[in-house]
Amino acid sequence: MEGALDLSSLLRLLSQAERQAGQLMAQVHADGNQYRRTALLQQIRSCLEDAIATAKIMEPEPSNLPPQLPLSDSPPISNSGSPRSECSERVLFKEHERREMCKKRKTLPKWASRVCVAGGGLAEGLEDGYSWRKYGQKGILGARHPRGYYRCTHRNTAGCLATKQVQRSDDDSCVFDITYRGDHTCQQKLQAPPTPGADEPATSQSHDHHQAQVLNSSFFFPSSSAQITSFPPQNLVFSSTAAVEDHHRNYYTGSSTPLFISPATSDSNYFPVAPSQVAVHPNASESELTEIVSAAASTTNSPRMDANFMLDQAEFGPLFNFDPSNFFGSSF
DNA sequence: TAGATTTGACCTTT
DNA sequence: AAAGGTCAAATCTA
């Protein structure tokens, strides 16, 4: 991006767009419960904040912009033209990343899911299209079971910020509460076993990611004998049975057996998913069960806003003319 | 040996 | 200050 655009002008543009995104988010919240649009706007806002922070770091001269917050308590590093050492640059970016992570805790879209594991059989091989890496475990006050913290394996290589927390329910030991943050930007679906139509544009999968991942789960374990049930969060809006069927075609071209019950056909928030698809050993230890559910839980992931969806101008309506490609295409 | 997990320490938020 | 969340060194495993 160096030299492509005056950084001060860019910062002004980004700040303006970020304010606009914030106002739009407020409008969306006021309009009603439109989860996808809200989450999308949150992501855009987060991107803008990232870009602003990055631009501030890279800005070679103090500008006439309002003073920015220092990145750390350490003495400010001079950036008035003298070359900074790689070491201090690394420290600066590390500090920046840490602060950005804290910001993202608040700005990343967040949603909850609940998974129940029951039945007998073998748990071997339970995987999904996403790979998670555990980075922490913590006992939670008032909870009998520890909470596991997972992030996307491709966080470092692809910058994917998706994370999830898995906690076993106190009330029912076969129920796991899973909280997701952020969305996968790493295109992990490409690593999944080859499936007919799996290389379709991401747009076709983005509108009902929940169902899509459920389909993934059943694809990998077509012969297992236990059951995983999913309780979709109430604040999520899944469009229709047709969408489920679309994903069915995406992942199961050639199959004529409808494996899933559409949420539209269910009269409660209990959403039976892929019955008789996933096996769990009845004597599995807690840690084993947690791992199993961690993998399974991601198959009930939430609506996904991938890049194509994010760029879908129709989702913004006439209120928002922000075009990320204009902002980031040539300069980032 | 590389990648994943564990776990105590540290940081941020409330 | 307490609790939640993340980091990173040590350890494990394939």
TrEMBL record:
<dbReference type="GO" id="GO:0010193">
    <property type="term" value="P:response to ozone"/>
</dbReference>
<keyword id="KW-0539">Nucleus</keyword>
<keyword id="KW-0238">DNA-binding</keyword>
<feature type="region of interest" description="Disordered">
    <location>
        <begin position="60"/>
        <end position="86"/>
    </location>
</feature>
<feature type="domain" description="WRKY">
    <location>
        <begin position="121"/>
        <end position="184"/>
    </location>
</feature>
<feature type="region of interest" description="Disordered">
    <location>
        <begin position="187"/>
        <end position="209"/>
    </location>
</feature>
<dbReference type="GO" id="GO:0000976">
    <property type="term" value="F:transcription cis-regulatory region binding"/>
</dbReference>
<keyword id="KW-0804">Transcription</keyword>
<protein>
    <recommendedName>
        <fullName>WRKY domain-containing protein</fullName>
    </recommendedName>
</protein>
<dbReference type="GO" id="GO:0003700">
    <property type="term" value="F:DNA-binding transcription factor activity"/>
</dbReference>
<dbReference type="GO" id="GO:0009751">
    <property type="term" value="P:response to salicylic acid"/>
</dbReference>
<dbReference type="InterPro" id="IPR044810">
    <property type="entry name" value="WRKY_plant"/>
</dbReference>
<keyword id="KW-0805">Transcription regulation</keyword>
<dbReference type="Pfam" id="PF03106">
    <property type="entry name" value="WRKY"/>
</dbReference>
<comment type="similarity">
    <text>Belongs to the WRKY group III family.</text>
</comment>
<dbReference type="GO" id="GO:0042542">
    <property type="term" value="P:response to hydrogen peroxide"/>
</dbReference>
<dbReference type="GO" id="GO:0005634">
    <property type="term" value="C:nucleus"/>
</dbReference>
<dbReference type="InterPro" id="IPR003657">
    <property type="entry name" value="WRKY_dom"/>
</dbReference>
<dbReference type="GO" id="GO:0010150">
    <property type="term" value="P:leaf senescence"/>
</dbReference>
